[in-house]
Amino acid sequence: MQIQGYYDLKFEAVKDAFAELFDNPQERGAALCIQIGGETLVDIWAGTADKDGAEAWHSDTILNLFSCTKTLTAVAALQLVGEGKLELDLPVAHYWPEFAAAGKQHVTLRHLLSHSAGLPALHAQLPGEALYDWTAMTDALAAEQPWWTPGEAHGYAPITYGWLVGELLRRVDGRGPGESIVNRVARPLGLDLHVGLADSEFHRVAHMSRAKGNLGDAAAQRLLKCFMSEPNAVSTRAFTNPPSVLTSTNKPEWRRMAQPAANGHGNARSLAGFYSGLLDGRLLEPELIGELTREHRRGEDRTLLTATRFGLGCMLDQPEVANATYGAGPKAFGHPGAGGSIGFADPERDLSFAFVCNSLGPYVLMDPRAQRLARVTAVCLE
Protein backbone atom coordinates (compact mmCIF):
# COMPACT_ATOMS: atom_id res chain seq x y z
CA MET A 1 0.00 0.00 0.00
CA GLN A 2 1.40 3.38 -0.99
CA ILE A 3 1.39 5.84 1.89
CA GLN A 4 0.75 9.48 0.95
CA GLY A 5 1.69 12.58 2.90
CA TYR A 6 4.55 13.61 5.16
CA TYR A 7 6.29 12.15 8.18
CA ASP A 8 9.39 13.12 10.12
CA LEU A 9 11.96 10.33 9.85
CA LYS A 10 11.90 9.98 13.63
CA PHE A 11 8.42 8.51 13.14
CA GLU A 12 9.25 6.02 10.41
CA ALA A 13 8.12 3.18 12.71
CA VAL A 14 4.71 4.88 12.96
CA LYS A 15 4.47 5.12 9.18
CA ASP A 16 5.37 1.43 8.91
CA ALA A 17 2.73 0.47 11.53
CA PHE A 18 0.16 2.54 9.62
CA ALA A 19 1.10 0.77 6.37
CA GLU A 20 0.69 -2.62 8.10
CA LEU A 21 -3.00 -1.85 8.72
CA PHE A 22 -3.53 -2.40 5.01
CA ASP A 23 -2.26 -5.98 5.21
CA ASN A 24 -5.88 -6.62 6.21
CA PRO A 25 -7.83 -6.77 2.93
CA GLN A 26 -10.86 -5.25 4.65
CA GLU A 27 -9.00 -2.05 5.48
CA ARG A 28 -10.28 0.56 3.04
CA GLY A 29 -9.00 4.04 3.85
CA ALA A 30 -7.41 5.84 6.80
CA ALA A 31 -5.43 8.89 7.84
CA LEU A 32 -3.14 9.69 10.76
CA CYS A 33 -1.86 13.00 12.07
CA ILE A 34 0.53 13.60 14.97
CA GLN A 35 1.46 17.02 16.27
CA ILE A 36 3.98 17.85 19.00
CA GLY A 37 3.86 21.35 20.43
CA GLY A 38 1.56 22.27 17.55
CA GLU A 39 4.11 21.19 14.94
CA THR A 40 2.90 18.53 12.50
CA LEU A 41 5.35 15.63 12.45
CA VAL A 42 3.13 13.01 10.83
CA ASP A 43 0.34 13.68 8.32
CA ILE A 44 -0.25 10.54 6.25
CA TRP A 45 -3.12 8.79 4.49
CA ALA A 46 -3.76 5.80 2.28
CA GLY A 47 -6.40 3.57 0.77
CA THR A 48 -9.73 4.33 -0.82
CA ALA A 49 -12.60 6.63 0.10
CA ASP A 50 -15.58 5.60 -2.02
CA LYS A 51 -18.06 2.75 -1.73
CA ASP A 52 -16.57 0.73 -4.59
CA GLY A 53 -12.89 1.13 -3.70
CA ALA A 54 -12.11 2.99 -6.93
CA GLU A 55 -11.40 6.49 -5.61
CA ALA A 56 -8.18 7.14 -3.69
CA TRP A 57 -8.20 8.74 -0.27
CA HIS A 58 -6.95 12.30 -0.78
CA SER A 59 -5.31 14.95 1.37
CA ASP A 60 -8.67 16.71 1.78
CA THR A 61 -10.86 13.61 2.29
CA ILE A 62 -13.17 14.03 5.28
CA LEU A 63 -15.44 11.56 7.03
CA ASN A 64 -17.99 11.16 9.79
CA LEU A 65 -16.07 11.42 13.06
CA PHE A 66 -18.95 10.01 15.13
CA SER A 67 -18.40 10.63 18.86
CA CYS A 68 -15.08 12.41 18.39
CA THR A 69 -17.54 15.29 17.89
CA LYS A 70 -18.54 15.26 21.58
CA THR A 71 -15.40 17.01 22.79
CA LEU A 72 -15.81 19.81 20.22
CA THR A 73 -19.32 20.31 21.61
CA ALA A 74 -18.10 20.33 25.21
CA VAL A 75 -15.46 22.95 24.40
CA ALA A 76 -18.07 25.22 22.80
CA ALA A 77 -20.22 24.86 25.94
CA LEU A 78 -17.25 25.58 28.21
CA GLN A 79 -16.42 28.70 26.20
CA LEU A 80 -19.94 29.89 26.99
CA VAL A 81 -19.25 29.11 30.66
CA GLY A 82 -16.13 31.26 30.41
CA GLU A 83 -18.22 34.09 28.94
CA GLY A 84 -20.74 33.86 31.79
CA LYS A 85 -23.57 32.76 29.48
CA LEU A 86 -23.77 29.23 30.90
CA GLU A 87 -22.98 27.82 34.34
CA LEU A 88 -21.83 24.28 34.95
CA ASP A 89 -23.82 23.86 38.17
CA LEU A 90 -26.98 25.82 37.47
CA PRO A 91 -30.01 23.65 36.60
CA VAL A 92 -30.48 23.12 32.86
CA ALA A 93 -34.08 24.20 33.44
CA HIS A 94 -32.82 27.73 34.15
CA TYR A 95 -32.13 27.99 30.42
CA TRP A 96 -34.68 25.45 29.21
CA PRO A 97 -37.74 25.60 31.54
CA GLU A 98 -39.57 22.59 30.05
CA PHE A 99 -36.60 20.41 30.96
CA ALA A 100 -37.53 20.44 34.66
CA ALA A 101 -40.26 17.82 34.05
CA ALA A 102 -40.17 14.27 35.42
CA GLY A 103 -37.61 14.82 38.17
CA LYS A 104 -34.94 16.67 36.17
CA GLN A 105 -35.18 20.00 37.97
CA HIS A 106 -31.71 19.57 39.49
CA VAL A 107 -29.89 18.27 36.38
CA THR A 108 -26.98 20.55 35.44
CA LEU A 109 -24.72 21.05 32.44
CA ARG A 110 -22.01 19.27 34.44
CA HIS A 111 -24.29 16.22 34.67
CA LEU A 112 -24.91 16.31 30.90
CA LEU A 113 -21.22 16.62 30.00
CA SER A 114 -20.15 13.86 32.40
CA HIS A 115 -22.87 11.42 31.29
CA SER A 116 -24.38 11.32 34.77
CA ALA A 117 -27.77 12.95 34.09
CA GLY A 118 -29.56 9.62 33.62
CA LEU A 119 -30.58 10.50 30.05
CA PRO A 120 -28.58 8.20 27.74
CA ALA A 121 -31.75 7.08 25.97
CA LEU A 122 -35.47 7.61 25.58
CA HIS A 123 -37.82 5.02 27.08
CA ALA A 124 -40.54 5.28 24.44
CA GLN A 125 -39.63 4.00 20.98
CA LEU A 126 -39.59 6.78 18.38
CA PRO A 127 -39.97 6.48 14.59
CA GLY A 128 -36.87 6.59 12.41
CA GLU A 129 -37.67 10.01 10.98
CA ALA A 130 -37.54 11.57 14.48
CA LEU A 131 -33.75 11.42 14.19
CA TYR A 132 -33.87 14.41 11.83
CA ASP A 133 -36.47 16.40 13.77
CA TRP A 134 -34.59 18.56 16.30
CA THR A 135 -37.72 19.83 18.03
CA ALA A 136 -39.25 16.35 18.35
CA MET A 137 -36.08 15.04 19.97
CA THR A 138 -35.54 17.94 22.36
CA ASP A 139 -39.23 17.93 23.36
CA ALA A 140 -39.02 14.20 24.05
CA LEU A 141 -35.90 14.65 26.18
CA ALA A 142 -37.45 17.57 28.07
CA ALA A 143 -40.34 15.29 29.05
CA GLU A 144 -38.19 12.21 29.70
CA GLN A 145 -37.82 10.60 33.13
CA PRO A 146 -34.18 9.83 34.03
CA TRP A 147 -33.11 6.16 34.05
CA TRP A 148 -31.44 6.73 37.44
CA THR A 149 -31.20 9.53 39.99
CA PRO A 150 -29.13 12.22 38.27
CA GLY A 151 -25.59 12.44 39.62
CA GLU A 152 -25.66 9.04 41.34
CA ALA A 153 -24.32 6.93 38.46
CA HIS A 154 -23.10 7.38 34.90
CA GLY A 155 -24.02 5.89 31.56
CA TYR A 156 -22.69 7.08 28.24
CA ALA A 157 -25.20 9.03 26.12
CA PRO A 158 -24.12 8.12 22.58
CA ILE A 159 -26.66 10.28 20.74
CA THR A 160 -28.92 12.10 23.26
CA TYR A 161 -25.85 14.09 24.37
CA GLY A 162 -26.06 15.99 21.08
CA TRP A 163 -29.64 17.16 21.57
CA LEU A 164 -29.17 17.89 25.26
CA VAL A 165 -25.97 19.95 25.06
CA GLY A 166 -26.84 21.22 21.58
CA GLU A 167 -30.16 22.65 22.76
CA LEU A 168 -28.36 24.59 25.49
CA LEU A 169 -25.93 25.95 22.89
CA ARG A 170 -28.87 26.93 20.68
CA ARG A 171 -30.70 28.70 23.50
CA VAL A 172 -27.79 30.68 24.96
CA ASP A 173 -25.62 31.31 21.88
CA GLY A 174 -28.47 32.40 19.63
CA ARG A 175 -27.52 30.21 16.66
CA GLY A 176 -27.75 26.58 15.62
CA PRO A 177 -25.55 24.20 17.60
CA GLY A 178 -23.44 23.23 14.60
CA GLU A 179 -22.90 26.87 13.68
CA SER A 180 -21.98 27.66 17.28
CA ILE A 181 -19.43 24.84 17.50
CA VAL A 182 -17.80 25.51 14.13
CA ASN A 183 -17.53 29.26 14.72
CA ARG A 184 -16.14 28.80 18.21
CA VAL A 185 -13.86 25.81 17.76
CA ALA A 186 -12.99 25.17 14.11
CA ARG A 187 -12.95 28.51 12.34
CA PRO A 188 -10.60 30.37 14.74
CA LEU A 189 -7.97 27.65 14.24
CA GLY A 190 -8.59 27.18 10.51
CA LEU A 191 -9.71 23.58 10.99
CA ASP A 192 -11.57 21.51 8.37
CA LEU A 193 -14.25 20.44 10.87
CA HIS A 194 -17.99 20.58 10.21
CA VAL A 195 -21.09 19.93 12.32
CA GLY A 196 -23.81 20.06 9.71
CA LEU A 197 -22.12 19.55 6.35
CA ALA A 198 -22.85 21.68 3.26
CA ASP A 199 -23.88 19.73 0.16
CA SER A 200 -20.93 21.30 -1.65
CA GLU A 201 -18.59 19.25 0.56
CA PHE A 202 -20.25 15.86 -0.06
CA HIS A 203 -17.90 14.97 -2.92
CA ARG A 204 -14.97 14.57 -0.54
CA VAL A 205 -16.69 12.54 2.19
CA ALA A 206 -15.46 8.97 2.62
CA HIS A 207 -18.08 6.21 2.50
CA MET A 208 -18.29 4.28 5.77
CA SER A 209 -18.72 0.51 5.88
CA ARG A 210 -18.39 -2.18 8.51
CA ALA A 211 -15.62 -4.74 8.45
CA LYS A 212 -16.99 -8.28 8.48
CA GLY A 213 -16.16 -11.32 10.60
CA ASN A 214 -14.70 -9.53 13.61
CA LEU A 215 -16.82 -9.76 16.76
CA GLY A 216 -14.57 -7.43 18.73
CA ASP A 217 -13.51 -7.75 22.35
CA ALA A 218 -15.47 -8.98 25.38
CA ALA A 219 -17.01 -5.53 25.94
CA ALA A 220 -18.30 -5.40 22.37
CA GLN A 221 -19.75 -8.90 22.61
CA ARG A 222 -21.45 -8.08 25.93
CA LEU A 223 -23.11 -5.04 24.37
CA LEU A 224 -24.15 -6.97 21.26
CA LYS A 225 -25.71 -9.68 23.41
CA CYS A 226 -27.72 -7.00 25.23
CA PHE A 227 -28.91 -5.51 21.92
CA MET A 228 -30.09 -8.93 20.72
CA SER A 229 -31.80 -10.11 23.90
CA GLU A 230 -32.98 -7.01 25.81
CA PRO A 231 -34.81 -4.57 23.49
CA ASN A 232 -35.94 -2.35 26.36
CA ALA A 233 -32.59 -2.12 28.17
CA VAL A 234 -30.99 1.30 28.48
CA SER A 235 -28.01 0.12 26.40
CA THR A 236 -30.20 -1.05 23.54
CA ARG A 237 -32.42 2.02 23.59
CA ALA A 238 -29.36 4.32 23.68
CA PHE A 239 -28.08 3.03 20.34
CA THR A 240 -31.30 2.11 18.54
CA ASN A 241 -33.84 4.78 19.44
CA PRO A 242 -34.66 6.29 16.98
CA PRO A 243 -33.91 3.05 15.06
CA SER A 244 -32.10 4.91 12.27
CA VAL A 245 -29.16 5.95 14.50
CA LEU A 246 -26.84 3.12 13.45
CA THR A 247 -27.72 3.05 9.75
CA SER A 248 -27.64 6.70 8.70
CA THR A 249 -23.99 7.71 8.39
CA ASN A 250 -23.83 7.69 4.59
CA LYS A 251 -27.20 9.41 4.07
CA PRO A 252 -27.34 13.02 2.82
CA GLU A 253 -29.81 14.01 5.55
CA TRP A 254 -27.41 12.70 8.23
CA ARG A 255 -24.52 14.70 6.81
CA ARG A 256 -26.61 17.87 6.63
CA MET A 257 -28.04 17.78 10.14
CA ALA A 258 -26.11 19.23 13.06
CA GLN A 259 -26.18 16.44 15.65
CA PRO A 260 -23.25 17.42 17.86
CA ALA A 261 -22.93 14.05 19.58
CA ALA A 262 -22.13 12.01 16.53
CA ASN A 263 -22.11 13.61 13.10
CA GLY A 264 -19.17 15.97 12.99
CA HIS A 265 -17.15 15.59 9.79
CA GLY A 266 -13.45 16.25 9.40
CA ASN A 267 -10.07 14.65 8.94
CA ALA A 268 -7.14 13.56 11.08
CA ARG A 269 -5.23 16.78 10.42
CA SER A 270 -8.02 18.96 11.80
CA LEU A 271 -8.84 16.67 14.71
CA ALA A 272 -5.19 16.75 15.82
CA GLY A 273 -5.22 20.53 15.33
CA PHE A 274 -8.20 20.80 17.67
CA TYR A 275 -6.29 19.02 20.45
CA SER A 276 -3.22 21.18 19.81
CA GLY A 277 -5.50 24.20 20.24
CA LEU A 278 -6.59 22.84 23.62
CA LEU A 279 -3.01 22.15 24.74
CA ASP A 280 -1.71 25.60 23.82
CA GLY A 281 -4.62 27.48 25.40
CA ARG A 282 -6.18 28.92 22.25
CA LEU A 283 -9.61 27.37 22.91
CA LEU A 284 -10.09 27.43 26.68
CA GLU A 285 -8.67 29.23 29.70
CA PRO A 286 -6.58 27.02 32.06
CA GLU A 287 -9.35 26.79 34.67
CA LEU A 288 -11.80 25.44 32.09
CA ILE A 289 -9.21 23.04 30.63
CA GLY A 290 -8.92 21.79 34.21
CA GLU A 291 -12.66 21.19 34.36
CA LEU A 292 -12.68 19.49 30.93
CA THR A 293 -9.92 17.05 31.88
CA ARG A 294 -10.63 16.49 35.58
CA GLU A 295 -12.10 13.13 36.53
CA HIS A 296 -15.84 13.49 37.09
CA ARG A 297 -17.03 9.88 36.80
CA ARG A 298 -15.25 6.55 36.91
CA GLY A 299 -16.43 2.95 37.04
CA GLU A 300 -19.01 0.67 35.51
CA ASP A 301 -20.91 2.42 32.73
CA ARG A 302 -24.64 1.65 32.73
CA THR A 303 -24.87 2.09 28.96
CA LEU A 304 -21.60 0.64 27.66
CA LEU A 305 -21.43 -2.19 30.27
CA THR A 306 -17.70 -1.63 30.68
CA ALA A 307 -15.51 0.67 32.78
CA THR A 308 -15.45 4.30 31.64
CA ARG A 309 -13.80 7.41 33.05
CA PHE A 310 -15.14 10.82 32.07
CA GLY A 311 -14.11 14.41 32.30
CA LEU A 312 -16.54 16.87 30.74
CA GLY A 313 -17.33 15.71 27.22
CA CYS A 314 -14.13 13.72 27.02
CA MET A 315 -12.94 10.27 28.03
CA LEU A 316 -9.92 10.06 30.31
CA ASP A 317 -7.26 7.40 30.06
CA GLN A 318 -7.59 4.17 32.05
CA PRO A 319 -4.07 2.71 31.73
CA GLU A 320 -5.06 -0.46 33.58
CA VAL A 321 -8.08 -1.22 31.34
CA ALA A 322 -7.12 -2.77 28.01
CA ASN A 323 -10.04 -1.39 25.99
CA ALA A 324 -9.95 2.04 27.66
CA THR A 325 -6.38 3.30 27.31
CA TYR A 326 -5.16 5.60 24.58
CA GLY A 327 -1.81 3.85 24.67
CA ALA A 328 -0.08 7.12 25.61
CA GLY A 329 0.47 8.85 28.96
CA PRO A 330 -1.82 8.39 31.97
CA LYS A 331 -3.03 12.00 31.71
CA ALA A 332 -4.25 11.56 28.12
CA PHE A 333 -7.74 12.79 27.31
CA GLY A 334 -9.83 12.76 24.16
CA HIS A 335 -12.65 10.81 22.58
CA PRO A 336 -13.03 7.75 20.38
CA GLY A 337 -15.66 7.59 17.68
CA ALA A 338 -17.67 4.54 16.64
CA GLY A 339 -15.76 2.27 14.30
CA GLY A 340 -12.22 3.33 15.13
CA SER A 341 -11.62 7.04 14.62
CA ILE A 342 -10.06 8.82 17.60
CA GLY A 343 -8.57 12.11 18.69
CA PHE A 344 -6.68 12.69 21.91
CA ALA A 345 -4.02 14.77 23.62
CA ASP A 346 -1.21 13.72 25.96
CA PRO A 347 -0.32 16.88 27.90
CA GLU A 348 2.86 15.35 29.33
CA ARG A 349 4.32 15.05 25.83
CA ASP A 350 2.48 18.05 24.33
CA LEU A 351 1.17 15.46 21.89
CA SER A 352 -1.96 15.68 19.76
CA PHE A 353 -2.96 12.50 17.95
CA ALA A 354 -5.74 11.70 15.51
CA PHE A 355 -6.53 8.57 13.53
CA VAL A 356 -9.56 8.24 11.25
CA CYS A 357 -10.78 5.35 9.13
CA ASN A 358 -13.74 4.33 7.00
CA SER A 359 -13.53 0.57 7.74
CA LEU A 360 -15.59 0.44 10.90
CA GLY A 361 -14.42 -1.91 13.63
CA PRO A 362 -16.76 -3.37 16.28
CA TYR A 363 -15.06 -2.08 19.43
CA VAL A 364 -16.87 -0.22 22.23
CA LEU A 365 -14.12 2.16 23.36
CA MET A 366 -10.61 2.14 21.89
CA ASP A 367 -9.93 0.49 18.57
CA PRO A 368 -6.77 -1.68 18.61
CA ARG A 369 -5.57 -0.05 15.39
CA ALA A 370 -5.40 3.39 16.98
CA GLN A 371 -3.97 2.00 20.22
CA ARG A 372 -1.11 0.32 18.39
CA LEU A 373 -0.29 3.47 16.44
CA ALA A 374 -0.31 5.48 19.68
CA ARG A 375 1.99 2.97 21.39
CA VAL A 376 4.47 3.09 18.51
CA THR A 377 4.30 6.89 18.65
CA ALA A 378 5.16 6.80 22.37
CA VAL A 379 8.19 4.60 21.64
CA CYS A 380 9.38 7.03 18.94
CA LEU A 381 9.20 9.85 21.50
CA GLU A 382 11.33 8.09 24.12
Automatic annotation (TrEMBL):
Gene3D superfamilies: DD-peptidase/beta-lactamase superfamily. Residues 18-373 form the Beta-lactamase-related domain. Pfam families: Beta-lactamase (PF00144). It comes from the Bacteria. PANTHER family: BETA-LACTAMASE-RELATED, BETA-LACTAMASE-RELATED DOMAIN-CONTAINING PROTEIN. This is CubicO group peptidase, beta-lactamase class C family. It comes from Pseudomonas kuykendallii.
